[in-house]
């Protein structure tokens, strides 16, 4: 799906609301109005090759890691095999799944920088059958500098994924909150991008820059790259601000915005402490239901 950078610039600026449209937005929940019932996905007869999706936004704290974990877990519930790749030196994805990556001798850093190390050597199973993880820790921060001198440095992740892609249905990459070389590697290796976007105006300001980066990668490195969708996160229908921001996002990006909206809830911080996805920690919660709906949308792409 194409997104125009000028639309992103427009939505990133808070501006006066049309009185009639503003009054209508105040009276109803625009996110609820867009929701549709989604059919259950069909079961698979065989696995692979994997579709690679980069979870990307250069702003931190917008729900990238939470969405990577829970989308992966929801896809597994629908019979898919999923590999999660932690491409953030902070290692939040690993922590969120209860994997002590800071104590590991080999992580994604070794895969990227050592020819003799493969993803099979460093991946670890999670507590969810069918969901595997390639962990990360602070060592990965050195890769950004070391890759600069490498030949075809933007394709490093793409090369290492080739050996393992047939074993999975989806590979989700949790990108770091920046538009540096590691993120460019993720975009070069991916077929799709999911942009988690917190429903507040400061989060909207960086969308144009992110879209511009995606367009450049598509033009110069990865012609098959597409934006799968924008995922509204931390949404609170009780606040006028959230409802208005969501309306502006839909106004600018239209059908590129997922129908599924991730509501703000205390359950998500609990899952981080527990080291589990919300689909297993609180399987009947609204958050778990939302990520199952998101998985249905992703499977329908």
From TrEMBL:
SUPFAM superfamilies: P-loop containing nucleoside triphosphate hydrolases. Pfam families: AAA_31 (PF13614). Residues 29-40 have a biased composition (Basic and acidic residues). Residues 51-227 form the AAA domain. InterPro entries: AAA_dom (IPR025669), DNA_Partitioning_ATPase (IPR050678), P-loop_NTPase (IPR027417). CDD domains: ParAB_family (cd02042). Residues 1-47 are annotated as: Disordered. Residues 1-12 have a biased composition (Low complexity). Belongs to the ParA family. PANTHER family: COBYRINIC ACID AC-DIAMIDE SYNTHASE, P-LOOP CONTAINING NUCLEOSIDE TRIPHOSPHATE HYDROLASE. May play a role in septum formation. This is Sporulation initiation inhibitor protein soj. It comes from Blastococcus saxobsidens (strain DD2). The lineage of its organism: Bacteria, Bacillati, Actinomycetota, Actinomycetes, Geodermatophilales.
